[in-house]
Amino acid sequence: MIGKIEDPTLRSFAKALFEPIWESFKKGVAAKNYHHAYIGGLLQHSANVGEIAYNLARFYNLKTDIVLLGAILHDIGKVWEFDIFPKFEHNSYYSKLGHIFLGAHYVREKAREFNIPKEIADEIVHIILSHHGEYVRGSPVLPKTPEAMLVHLVDNLDAQMNHILMKNEKDR
Ligand SMILES: [Fe+2]
Ligand SMILES: [Fe+2]
Prior knowledge:
The protein has 172 residues and is an all-alpha fold. The chain has helices spanning 8-18, 22-27, 41-59, 64-73, 78-81, 92-96, 99-113, 118-130, 146-171, and strands spanning 82-83, 89-90. A two-stranded antiparallel ribbon has the order 1-2.
């Protein structure tokens, strides 16, 4: 997914974000029960949202670099929210800070270090902050850009599809 980012600075920015947390990111879970609740689930969910949102961004003629970054980073805060061993458990970051804040904060700090122009950083952070789509679902702001709306909808699509696919597999 990172390879599909066209702007070379944004591509290195994406690499710099994932490098320090790669081990935890690839082992991470996306949720405790509802969707992608297995080792590697966070990586799979993030890659799925990246792939689907990228294709739809092209269809709707949106900014593909912003969509890709927002999509692969939207749940990055989950790296800190769960303990994997001895079993999947929410830790105190889950109850006290939450993945939306954690992810937005991490990306914003790194964007400053990287001298990413403010407007671009804000657009990416906006996608993270608004990806739950509603105040009652924990988003502090609602999707205001087409790129943010797309990532929100695709996030929901991939979560629900995984949920029903896993359920079907269990029931078989
Ligand atoms: Fe999320
Ligand atoms: Fe998600």
